[in-house]
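Question: I have long wanted to understand how a fold can be written as tokens. Here is the record:
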Amino acid sequence: MGQRLAFTGGSEDRQLPVIVQGTTAISIANSVVCTKTLAAAGAGVCYVVTGFSFSMASASAALTLGTVGCYVIDGASAATTFIYRSIVSVGTTGFAPIEREGLYLKGSPNTALTIEFSGAITNAAECVSIEYTTLKSA
């Protein structure tokens, strides 16, 4: 029998089959927005975010000071249905990485999943990573 995760929803508890588990990461070179979108997983299948990280470091010279958003989105890039959202201040060397694990943040069925920064910071190398599983609804 396949691996299963417990899910509590509405007024009943039920077991849903795990379809796929995975991790994806992407690093982007100097001064470019870092974004990664996973295509919709199929009819009746939703993503569940189990962990993620955002990091940024100087790629060549001191970074331009500013703020940047760190988003996990239930949908395509630039959508506004946020699973997670944070704004960070960027210093001349970057910021302390944001890392979360042990989560169970469920997205909508048949919907893409995106992790991204809201913009590019001059001289910065941005990196995002997301851990996920997919579940088929009962």
About this structure: The chain has a mean pLDDT of 82. The chain has one domain: 22-130. The domain at 22-130 is CATH 2.60.120 (Jelly Rolls). The beta strands are 4-9, 12-28, 35-38, 45-58, 66-74, 82-90, 94-106, 113-117, 124-136.
